Amino acid sequence: MSHAAAVAPAESPPVKRRRFHLTPYSLLFPAVAILLAALAYPVGWQIFASVHRYGRAQQFGQPAEFIGAANYLALVRDPAIWSVVVRSIGFCLVNAVLTVLIGVGLAVLMNAAAKACRLILQIGLLLAWAMPVVAAMTVWNWLFQWHTGVVNQVLTQLGFSFHNHNWLESPLSFYAVATIIVVWMSVPFVAFSVFAGLTQISPEVTEAAQLDGASGWRRFTHIVMPMIRPVLMIVLLLQIIWDLRVFTQIKLLQDAGAPLSETDLLGTYIYRVSTGVSDFGLAAAMSVFVLLLTLILSAPYVRSLMKEESL
Amino acid sequence: MSRLKPGRIVASLAAVVVALVWAFPVYWMVNSALLPNTVLTSSTPRFLPFGGSLKNFRAVWDGGTFLPALRTSLIVTLTAVLCCLLFAFCAALAISRFRFRGRTSFVLAVLFIQMLPAEGLFIAQYKMMSQVGLTDHALGLASLYAAAVVPFTVWMLRGFVAGVPADLEEAAMVDGASRTGAFFRITFPLLAPGLVASGVYAFLQAWNEFTIALVIMPSAAAQTLPLWLRGFIQQSSTRAVDWGQVMAASTLVALPVIVFFLLVQGRLTSGLVAGAVKG
């Protein structure tokens, strides 16, 4: 990888690259400084709170009592938390996989469509991508609104009995709606990234395979897929990270009127434990747990990413 | 050219259909914003804004809270974007142009920070900000935003810097330019598209962010646009919801971003190529 070569001073031979430089460290300094300033204290506090009894009284200055792993034990013993964890992992995997599958599909479609139609598709996706999440959630709440929402009205006109149907009432249809929204928002990023990867594949390669008699599907699995693998890895990893921590969409859907305890995912549950019940210790322990969960779920991708980047 | 192959025609048609499906919620927002509430609450949906007007927009605008929120959003976002770009650019230079001890750890840390569950950090971030007196303050929110987008921006810019061969700079130095001179005359102009793409990304993240703002900016006077929109909905749902006005408010929040996005979309996608494909 030629780009990785250091910019050696002109007069020194280019082989000698292991000298200690101050430059990279001073270049890293501002980024590291702002990350530390914004995150070091919160992360440290979180670890501290997770091993202490930390409620509203401690928030107002009472010393926190060290209770070791009690918060973590409480977390493990609470069946309600386990159902939140299971739901979150399920939601995360379903959404990440759907998003990447549809994203790849649309990227292939972009590649195959005529130029004008490709542009139309790109603009359609961009509109969804650019929507601020709160605005998007407002619109989706309006689309699925039980009384005058267009989804119910159209379904009723088509002869289904969806008159005054509340989509957010039962957990399963709540998650279905949430999945539609999250996938709708996330697909454009995946589609554009993968499309960008596809445009890097030279047409000669696929044409050569075609001359050799490879079918469309074989060309896709044997030539295209391996070449866009790095992009796929990154987008899948990011989707898993993002979808496990999905918060705003769930929170705003709940705001629109859904039973909280049955629709909570990890993000909203932690938020409720800390702001509602004021059990900051338990909330902190759960955050640490979510972090570990993310690490476990993404470890295989990070490892192969690191291998491919030869870091 | 294989212009008229049946496969291409089917793909083109499918592309248009998917585009319409994907854009529908955005269209529906604008459509509803133009229609009066009496039409919106009738039992048959109206798919085209016949008989529409800008009345809903005027009502929202006359509420008088939109402009202050817009101002806060602009200040916070621009501060965050400028800091983020500058810091991330330096860091990207360091990791793609130098091999040094701690480089791998930094790259891993960048990925790791993406995984921190933000909902758990709110409380501590609020505590921290209130200790230094920066709650309800644009600077406090801007610095949290800058920190939140720096990791991904480093990741993206790294691809761009890597895409400009160091040989180019070396050639200029052989021709007598100083190292800094070579950098600013040769490399920097080639990086402009990358900076634009990353800047747009950072802008959108900060402009659209809702959760941190919800915690850090509790007072109504210091609201950013997403908070303002949520407040607008909550306030109107104590009465019967005026969906026309709510959609007009959503459109006002979304429109600048959509226009901005369409203007720079070519650069943004090429930015994703460079950031994601090149190692």
What does this structure look like?
The complex is a heterodimer of chains A (311) and B (279). Chain A is mostly helical and 311 residues long. Chain A has a single domain, classed as MetI-like fold. Chain A has 14 helices and 2 strands, in the order αβαβαααααααααααα. In chain A, strands 1-2 form a two-stranded antiparallel ribbon. In chain A, α1 packs antiparallel against α14, α3 packs across α14 and α4 packs parallel to α8. The termini of chain A are close together. The N terminus of chain A is likely disordered. With 279 residues, chain B is mostly helical. Chain B folds into 2 domains: 48 residues, no CATH class; 219 residues, MetI-like fold, CATH 1.10.3720. In chain B, α4 packs across α9 and α5 packs across α7. Chain B is globular and about 75 Å long. Classes of the chains: A mainly alpha (311), B mainly alpha (279). Chains A and B meet through α1, α4, α5, α6 and α7 of A and α1, α4, α5, α6 and α7 of B.
Helix-strand sequence of chain B: HHHHHHHHHHHH
Could you give a short account of the major beta sheet of chain A? 2 strands, antiparallel
The pair of chains with the biggest contact is: A-B, 118 and 117 residues
Unreliably modeled segments of chain B:
none
Overall 3D shape of chain A: globular
Q: Helical residue percent of chain A? A: over 70%
Class by helix and strand content of chain B? mainly alpha
Percent of residues of chain B in helical segments? over 70%
Q: Got a strand count of chain B? A: 0
Superfamily (CATH H level) name of chain A: MetI-like
- Using the 3D structure, state the CATH architecture of chain A: Orthogonal Bundle
